[in-house]
């Protein structure tokens, strides 16, 4: 399933929807089962490869909206929860918008 | 059939042997597209998918695929994803090939982790399919069941074995042998109706006619693969040295050669064209880094065969059971 992405600045809620939907695709779980407070590893059983899949999917989807949008590999270790990822993407998207 | 996307820059003998192998496959009637730089030498009439970067053998697999977006590996995998190629083949960095295929083609729905399946030659019989030969150094018992399902599909399509016998690699044939992972996998495989599980097998069974598919974790599988490759090379070298040790051996050696050459052909990994990555949503052949022109043309044939057999759809059905 794909979130409906429209041109223009990204709202935080929109980013959560995108992160949740991409993560649900990768983990093959119901998007409704994903919440911001969940830990990727402890709650969602997402391993490092799943996180790389998520990062690639987000970069591909968001590059149309935010010029040169990129998630640095060095920052991946700091993204422990869904909220961390949403905050990070929101911040980077705002920088590039 | 759409062309097979061949990474022209991957492998110890690239691009020369790769381009030559692609031409031979094209002469056999297989559509081929080389993936490489605009000024790639020797491509003549073959289609080119342009890519300006190369993932080197020593590059980190994940980082290189993330950073080299215009690499031959990424462009080859994208060509399959975007419907411009029916399959991809590379003799380059194995981990990066796997990563490119996984990230660009995606996984087949329901597959936990793709696995590398490698044919192991068996004298006088069809090869044994060994998986995982190196994609996942740590696995879960459930993944081994999926490897068994996927390996069975591959053995059926690649070697025409109707009901492949599946063995779990362990340190003894009895059900209780092995570590906790093997014991749990034994139970799960025994209950999985979708595969013909024959129980534990040992290392000595891999090159025998006792089993058609051997499942294990990628760490163990890779050690087995490299041990067998090294062992076979050593034995062949020792035989040739024995022949050459004394001039009086030459007529005897000459007399034996007609009998030994077909055996050598059977045992030569280049005959089989390489391994295949099972579980991604497309056909991805991983050729040996030292592949010659012959290995490349055989690998392209395998890719085309698996596309023609609809192997990916069969895998989809197998893991859904």
Describe this structure in words.
The complex is a heterodimer of chains A (97) and B (321). Chain A is mostly helical. Chain A has one domain: ACP-like (Non-ribosomal Peptide Synthetase Peptidyl Carrier Protein, Chain A), CATH 1.10.1200.10. Chain A contains three helices and no strands. Chain A is globular. The N and C termini of chain A lie far apart (25 Å). Chain B is of the alpha/beta class. Chain B folds into two domains: 1-110 and 279-309, 3-Layer(aba) Sandwich (Isopropylmalate Dehydrogenase); 112-272, Isopropylmalate Dehydrogenase (3-Layer(aba) Sandwich). Chain B is built from ten helices and eleven strands. Chain B has helices at 16-27, 61-67, 72-81, 94-105, 141-159, 180-191, 218-244, 250-267, 293-308, 311-319, and strands at residues 4-7, 32-36, 47-50, 87-90, 115-120, 128-131, 165-169, 196-201, 213-215, 275-278, 283-286. Chain B has an eleven-stranded mixed sheet, sandwiched between helices. In chain B, a hairpin with a 7-residue loop joins strand 5 and strand 6. The model of chain B has no long low-confidence stretch (mean pLDDT 94). Chains A and B meet through helix 2 of A and helix 2 and helix 4 of B.
What would you say about this model in short?
Chain A is an all-alpha fold.
Give the SSE layout.
The complex is a heterodimer of chains A (97) and B (321).
Chain A: H1 12-27, H2 48-62, H3 82-96
Helix pairs in contact in A: 1-2, 1-3
Chain B: E1 4-7, H1 16-27, E2 32-36, E3 47-50, H2 61-67, H3 72-81, E4 87-90, H4 94-105, E5 115-120, E6 128-131, H5 141-159, E7 165-169, H6 180-191, E8 196-201, E9 213-215, H7 218-244, H8 250-267, E10 275-278, E11 283-286, H9 293-308, H10 311-319
Parallel strand pairs in B: 1-2, 1-4, 2-3, 4-11, 6-9, 7-8, 7-9
Antiparallel strand pairs in B: 5-6, 5-10, 10-11
């Amino acid at each position: 399933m794909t979130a409906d992405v429209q041109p223009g600045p990204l709202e935080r809620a929109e980013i959560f929807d995108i992160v949740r939907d991409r993560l649900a695709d990768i983990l093959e779980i119901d998007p409704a089962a994903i919440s911001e407070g969940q830990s990727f590893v402890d709650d969602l059983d997402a391993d490092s490869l799943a996180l790389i899949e998520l990062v690639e999917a987000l970069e591909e989807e968001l590059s149309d909206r935010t010029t040169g949008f990129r998630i640095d590999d060095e920052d991946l270790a700091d993204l422990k929860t869904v909220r961390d990822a949403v905050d990070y993407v929101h911040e980077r998207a705002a920088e590039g918008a | 059939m759409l062309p097979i996307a061949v990474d022209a820059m991957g492998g110890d003998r690239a691009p020369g042997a790769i381009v030559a192998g692609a031409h031979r496959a094209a002469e056999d009637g297989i559509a081929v597209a080389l993936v490489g730089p605009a000024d790639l030498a020797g491509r003549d009439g073959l289609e080119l998918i342009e890519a300006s970067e190369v993932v080197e053998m020593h590059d980190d697999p994940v980082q290189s695929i993330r950073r080299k977006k215009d690499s031959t590996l990424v462009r080859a995998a994208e060509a399959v994803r975007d419907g411009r190629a029916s399959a991809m083949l590379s003799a380059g960095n194995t981990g990066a090939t796997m990563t490119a295929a996984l990230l660009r083609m995606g996984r087949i729905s329901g597959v936990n982790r793709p696995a590398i399946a490698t044919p192991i030659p068996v004298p006088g019989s069809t090869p044994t399919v060994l998986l995982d030969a190196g994609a996942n150094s740590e696995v879960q018992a459930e993944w081994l069941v999926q490897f068994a399902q996927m390996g069975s599909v591959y053995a059926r399509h690649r070697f025409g074995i109707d009901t492949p016998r599946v063995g779990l690699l362990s340190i003894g044939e009895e059900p209780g042998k092995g570590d906790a992972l093997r014991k749990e996998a034994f139970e799960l495989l025994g209950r999985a109706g979708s595969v013909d599980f024959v129980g534990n097998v040992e290392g000595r069974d891999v090159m025998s006619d006792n089993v058609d598919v051997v499942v294990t974790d990628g760490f163990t599988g890779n050690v087995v693969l490299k041990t067998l490759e090294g062992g076979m090379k050593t034995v062949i070298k020792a035989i040739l040295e024995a022949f050459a040790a004394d001039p009086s051996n030459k007529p005897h050696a000459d007399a034996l050669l007609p009998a030994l050459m077909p055996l050598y052909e059977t045992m030569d990994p280049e005959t089989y064209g390489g391994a295949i990555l099972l579980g991604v949503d497309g056909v991805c052949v991983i050729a040996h880094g030292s592949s010659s022109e012959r290995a490349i043309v055989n690998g392209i044939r395998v890719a085309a065969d698996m596309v023609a057999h609809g192997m990916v759809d069969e895998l989809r059905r197998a893991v859904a059971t």
